[in-house]
Amino acid sequence: MKLIRVQAGVYAVNCYIIYCEDKKEGIIVDPGGDADSILEFVREKDLKIKYIVLTHGHGDHIGGLKELKEALNAKIAIHEDDVEMLRDGDKNLSSKMLMGRVEVEPDLILKEGSILEFGNEKAEVIHTPGHTLGGICLVIQDNIITGDTLFAGSIGRTDLYGGDFDTLMKSIKEKLMKYPDATKIFPGHGSPSTIGREKQSNPFLNNIQY
Ligand SMILES: [Zn+2]
Ligand SMILES: [Zn+2]
Residue 147 Cα, ligand 2 centroid: separation in angstroms? Predict the structure, then answer.
């Protein structure tokens, strides 16, 4: 399994290209923009992209969506509770962002426990509401793509549509902190980290007994 981070779009969101090297099949997570360079990588590696997965519906994570879907004919997957956001440029905030209004119809609706298979790999969906209603994390082997739920040293903001601080903390504590300390996390913004490092040093988490 290969996991590549591309800083995509005007807001430099972390877009991840994750693929099975053996079968050359993969997924793209959160293409915030820069569809051209993402496509160049996909073509260079001769990958078949099965799904474009969105950790949530916010505008900074979806700027490259239309172009990539057209070029790759991949299915767009999002949690059921963020579908309304994906369809509405005001709710997903793209109408106020530099890339302009993005409104997209998903092809695949995700829920807690949904499994996305690509090549010999699989990604499991964990529903982690709090930053948005339908925020998800994706578990692939000992890696977790955390979107805007958990960052290295911080957590997602909770002041936007569908956000709620207590719900976000509950998601992080109950759904993410149960993974082993060595589990790597790959957030939607900023650097990667591990579950263990966040338990130790994340100011939102380090007063909690595990
Ligand atoms: Zn967000
Ligand atoms: Zn974001």
Answer: 7
Q: What is the CATH number of the domain that holds 168?
A: 3.60.15.10
Q: What is the pLDDT of residues 187-202, one digit of tens each?
A: 999 999 999 999 999 9
E strand or H helix at 69, and its extent? helix 65-72
The sheet with strand 143-147 has its strands ordered as: 115-118, 121-127, 136-140, 143-147, 184-187, 193-194
Q: Does any domain span residue 46? A: yes
32-77 residue pLDDT tens: 999 999 999 999 999 999 999 999 999 999 999 999 999 999 999 9
Q: Is 159 part of any domain?
A: yes
For residue 134, report the distance from its CA to the centre of ligand 2, in Å: 14
- CA–centroid distance, residue 22 to ligand 2 (Å): 31
- Residues 139/149, Cβ–Cβ less than 8 Å: no
CA of 187 to the centre of ligand 1 (A): 11
User: How many whole angstroms from 98 Cα to the centroid of ligand 1?
Assistant: 15
Residue 46: how many CB atoms within 10 A of its CB? 7
Q: Structure pTM?
A: 0.97
Ligand 2 ion: Cβ-proximal residues, 5 Å cutoff: 60, 148, 188
Establish if 209 belongs to a structural domain. Answer: no
What ligand is nearest to the CA atom of residue 85?
1
Range of 178's domain?
A: 2-201
* Shortest-distance ligand to the CA of residue 189: 2
User: What is the pLDDT, as a whole number, of residue 209?
Assistant: 65
